[in-house]
Specification:
Largest sheet: 5 strands, antiparallel
Distance between the termini: 96 Å
Shape: globular
Oligomer: single chain
Helix content: 10-25%
Strand order of the largest sheet: 6-3-9-5-7
Radius of gyration: 28 Å
Strand content: 15-25%
Length: 521
């Protein structure tokens, strides 16, 4: 009996002393375990025609890049996903589950075995080279634009006539730059006045210099590292018939002359949306009035902004924007009962990986909720992304090496009847990205809410500014006398008879507002 026990004990000890490789579960192989992860998590970008620099569609592709894959997985650089919020909060989360990350690393450490061919899943078949599949309409800049090798950043607005015979509703937009490396970002708008088209090419080059072009509405934007995403069911952006598309592009010269001729894919909804999207920023206008002035060497420069919601809303998406020395950003919501919600938190901001984050379900916030944004900047030599060595003073500006910062929210009123109140409450803070299309009754309701929200001092300043615009001194502010960037907002607020100009009675209303004494605060 003792001999038997001794033999069993010897075998057990022998098993325990075996090398770990012989006792552990078999190493994963490409065909059975790795291919499905690569196809699901990587191939949407790592395929021909997309932003990634190389494809990952075959065993040979992946094995060849295995050491690169290992490095970016261990560092957290890939897959690109910056929010540290609960990954289940966002519908378009690309965060790699820890189990899948472990499988990929074990496969690489095991020497990248291929596995049985019959176990390999089929290579995904993408319907088109566009990320979202075949578009409903693809348009292209009419002429290429040359970006010089050196010099300051360039801002240019390109006009693309669409000649749509009927109104359309856009559920997604995807930009494909021909020279991605020089495109810092691009914004998409439409113009219904025809003025932008008439200005196109006046200086002998395609497009219009700068960004001072008529804007009738917004269709989103593009920054490096973003991924196009379809709006949730029932939501879409308006694109009126006859409107011209405008691509406002910020170019950053790279040391080599480039030729850019972007394509834009539009995906249309089958029917008009049932709810209206309203965008707003905190702080407003990318922090233009936040006093951004960062001394050289400052490691923890903080910018804050707040906005109180004028009505119940549902948040659809959220995203931030800043430049090189921003390192952190966060938006929180403090509800009227004191409850706090973390709407977006990025602890390692990277200009190269900006994105929009879509909530898995619309996030309800009640009237009176306070949204607060906190942005942190590091202008020291310890910041590897600092564009200056040694560090220099950095202030707010449009150039890549300047700074700015805000978090933009896309929301809908919880009740569509509250749209005028929401627009008025955001408009008073100048946070409204563009004016949504309102019916006549909604515009009247909007003006009533503006009288409720807007302080007398703001009306006085606005009145005095508008009165200076009457260049021909006829007592009427014609449409062309109003600043193009603010024209639609001004008419929405003060054009009570809706004839496209400010008549004497409306001017007198402005003057009356200007004459009111300000309430003491």
């Amino acid at each position: 009996m003792q001999r038997i026990l001794l033999a069993v004990w010897s075998v057990s000890v022998g098993v325990l002393l075996l090398p770990w490789e012989l006792r552990a579960e078999p190493a994963p192989n490409f065909n059975e375990h790795v291919a499905s992860i690569i196809y699901r998590r990587c191939a949407t970008c790592h395929r021909p025609g997309q932003v990634a620099p190389f494809p990952l569609l075959s065993y040979r592709d992946v094995k060849r890049r295995s050491l690169t894959i290992q490095a970016v997985l261990e560092s957290g650089y890939m897959p690109p996903w910056k929010p540290v919020n609960d990954p289940g909060m966002f519908a378009n989360s690309r965060k790699l589950p820890e189990q899948e990350k472990a499988t990929l690393l074990r496969w690489i450490q095991a020497g990248c075995p291929e596995g049985p061919a019959e176990k390999k899943p089929p290579v995904p078949q993408f319907p088109d080279e566009w990320y979202l599949g075949k578009p409903d309409l693809v348009v292209k800049m009419p002429k290429p634009f040359r970006v010089p090798a050196t010099g300051p950043d360039i801002y240019r607005s390109f006009v693309i006539p669409l000649d749509l015979p009927e109104d359309k509703w856009v559920r997604a937009v995807e930009l494909r730059p021909s020279s991605r490396q020089v495109v810092h970002h691009a914004l998409f708008f439409f113009d219904t006045t025809g003025l932008a088209r008439r200005r196109d090419g006046r200086d002998g080059q395609p497009g219009v210099p700068g960004m001072d072009v008529p804007i009738s509405g917004s269709l989103g934007g593009y920054v490096p590292g973003t991924f196009p995403y379809e709006l949730p069911e029932g939501l879409a952006m308006p694109l009126p018939k006859g409107a011209d598309l405008i691509i406002q592009t910020h170019f950053h010269p790279t040391g080599k002359e480039e030729v850019e001729q972007s394509e834009l894919a539009l995906y249309f909804a089958d029917k008009p949306p049932t709810r209206t999207l309203v965008p707003f920023q905190v702080p407003r206008m990318f922090g233009r009035f936040a006093g951004i002035d960062i001394p050289p060497g400052e490691k923890h420069y903080v910018v804050r902004g707040q906005l109180t919601l004028p009505t119940d809303v549902e948040l659809i998406s959220i995203g931030g924007h800043a430049h090189y020395v921003c390192v952190k950003m966060q938006m929180t919501a403090t509800l009227p009962d004191g409850t706090k919600k973390n709407l977006l938190q990025i602890d390692d901001w990277d200009l190269n990986w900006q994105d929009r984050y879509y909530y898995r379900k619309p996030l309800f916030l009640p009237e009176g909720t306070v949204l607060e944004t906190v942005l942190v900047y590091d202008n020291s030599a310890d910041n590897p992304r600092n564009p200056f060595n040694p560090p220099r003073r950095i202030r707010w500006g449009l150039e890549s090496y300047d700074e700015m910062g805000s978090i933009t929210v896309l929301a809908v009123p919880a009740r569509e009847k509250d749209l005028p109140k929401l627009v008025a409450g955001i408009y008073r803070n100048l946070d409204l990205g563009y004016v949504p299309r309102l019916t006549r009754e909604q515009r009247r309701e909007f003006r009533r809410w503006m009288d409720h929200f807007a302080p007398e001092r703001g009306r006085r300043i606005a009145a005095r500014l508008f009165l200076r615009l009457d260049r021909n001194k006829d007592g009427i502010l014609q449409r062309e006398e109003l600043p193009e960037q603010a024209r639609e907002k001004i008419l929405l607020r003060w054009d009570f008879n809706e004839n496209g100009q400010l008549d004497p009675d409306e001017i007198r209303a402005l003057w009356k507002a200007a004459s009111k004494p300000a309430k003491s605060s």
